Amino acid sequence: TGDSGSRDLFAVNATTGIVSTARQLDREMENRHMLSILVRDNGVPSLANETTVTITVLDVNDNRCLFLGAPYTASVPERSGSGVILAQVAAADIDLGDNAVVRYRITAQNLFVNIFGIDEVTGVVS
């Protein structure tokens, strides 16, 4: 048995006791599963015991980062000097740890790559 939603995700081999996944897991949907495992002998009377197995689903980089508030617009007076802050973009990734760290850059195919800059950490466009 298991918590709601976990029963269909795992299988227990009745002979070996090996617990395996029955379907693909998604950490963003459920990051922890609690399974109750029952063991029973063939004696008369049949005797049983139960234990709990906690399964933690580790993160993989399976989600794209998403821009928050896109599209963005900015304006700047002509003949402005360099370093004028034009906008700040923001993005988020629902993965965890290093998989959730976002970095910004102006793409190389952009005609203005040498005119504008972006702070790779903060998303400030100047």
Unreliable segments (pLDDT under 50, ≥5 consecutive)?
none
Would you list the SSEs in sequence order as H and E? Answer: EEEEEEEE
Query: What percentage of residues falls in helices of 4 or more residues?
Result: under 10%
Q: Give a count of the beta strands, DSSP E runs of length 2 or more.
A: 8
Helix count equals 0
Question: How far from one another are the termini?
Answer: 57 Å
Instruction: Describe the sheet with the most strands.
Output: 2 strands, antiparallel
Order of the strands making up the biggest sheet = 1-2
Q: What is the average of the pLDDT values?
A: 91
Q: Quick one: overall form?
A: rod-shaped
Cα gyration radius (Å): 26 Å
Content of β-strand: 25-35%
SSE class: mainly beta
Description of the structure:
The chain has strands at residues 10-12, 19-21, 32-40, 48-56, 66-67, 87-88, 91-92, 124-125. It has 126 residues and is mostly beta strands. It contains no helices and 8 strands. The strands form 4 sheets. The chain has a two-stranded antiparallel sheet with strand order 1-2. A two-stranded antiparallel sheet has the order 3-4.
Sum up the structure in keywords.
two-stranded antiparallel ribbon; 25% strand; 126 residues; rod-shaped; mainly beta
